[in-house]
Design goal:
The complex is a heterodimer of chains A (about 110) and B (about 110).
Chain A lengths: L4 E3 L2 E4 L5 E6 L6 E8 L3 E9 L2 E5 L6 E5 L5 E5 L8 E8 L9 E2 L3 E5 L1
Parallel strand pairs in A: 2-11
Antiparallel strand pairs in A: 1-3, 3-8, 4-5, 4-9, 5-6, 7-8, 9-10, 9-11
Chain B lengths: L2 E5 L2 E5 L4 E8 L5 E7 L5 E7 L5 E3 L5 E5 L4 E6 L8 E8 L6 E2 L3 E6 L1
Parallel strand pairs in B: 2-11
Antiparallel strand pairs in B: 1-3, 3-8, 4-5, 4-9, 6-7, 7-8, 9-10, 9-11
The chains are: A mainly beta (about 110), B mainly beta (about 110).
Chain lengths: ~110, ~110
């Protein structure tokens, strides 16, 4: 069974641009969560989608948004990029995402904002 | 909301020595607790988890953790470190129907 796939692997953008990251969960998984990872901060929770609905949201500004499609694939969008948005963005999937389940992580998208 | 604190951003041990990575949690409801490991240029992998039942949880690669409610702790241990254990380790907490929250991580270095 294929794992969680994130594309692209690397991105370089400039301030003010927008970016879209993609995540394909493990087949059969309906929950997709997004995390921002930066050195010293660990993983900061962005949001979780389940069956195309945002179920939980972290403390990030409205520039960060996401969506989930009927096939459970998810996209995350960041508008008006700032230097501080440079980070590794990780996507994780699980069957039901009810807090008790193991998360399966992708290898992440490394975003650099210049 | 739940949260975790990992004590020590960097831990260095000699090969063959005891590994102890500390994690304290905060949760208003019975927590589910997890340890994940991240090797360079990879995503996170689950080491072990505690949901209910036995408080001593055994995971992969010889790691184990003990849930201590009175101390709100879930420390990760391994009796004898191996070079391949060098990685970053994350403690995480969640509650039913809630998202999973991670600590800041502890980077483990193993010296030969």
């Amino acid at each position: 069974k294929a794992g969680v796939t994130q594309t692209p692997r690397y991105l370089i953008k400039t301030r003010g641009q927008q970016v879209t990251l993609s995540c394909s969960p493990i087949s059969g998984h309906r929950s997709v969560s997004w995390y921002q990872q930066t050195p010293g901060q660990g993983l900061q929770f962005l949001f979780e989608y389940f069956s195309e609905t945002q179920r939980n949201k972290g403390n990030f500004p409205g520039r960060f948004s996401g969506r989930q499609f009927s096939n459970s694939r998810s996209e995350m969008n960041v508008s008006t990029l700032e230097l501080g948005d440079s980070a590794l963005y990780l996507c994780a999937s699980s069957l039901g995402g009810q807090g008790r389940e193991k998360l399966f992580f992708g290898s992440g998208t490394q975003l650099s904002v210049l | 909301a739940q949260s975790v604190t990992q004590l020590g951003s960097h831990v260095s041990v000699s090969e063959g020595a005891l590994v102890l990575l500390r994690c304290n949690y905060s949760s208003s409801v019975p927590p589910y607790l997890f340890w994940y490991v991240q090797y360079p240029n990879q995503g996170l992998q689950l080491l072990l988890k505690y949901t209910t039942g036995a408080t001593l949880v055994k995971g992969i690669n010889g790691f184990e953790a003990e849930f201590k409610k009175s101390e709100t702790s879930f420390h990760l241990t391994k009796p004898s470190a191996h070079m391949s254990d060098a990685a970053e380790y994350f403690c995480a907490v969640s509650a039913l129907n809630n998202d999973m929250r991670f600590g800041a991580g502890t980077r483990l270095t193993v010296k030969p």
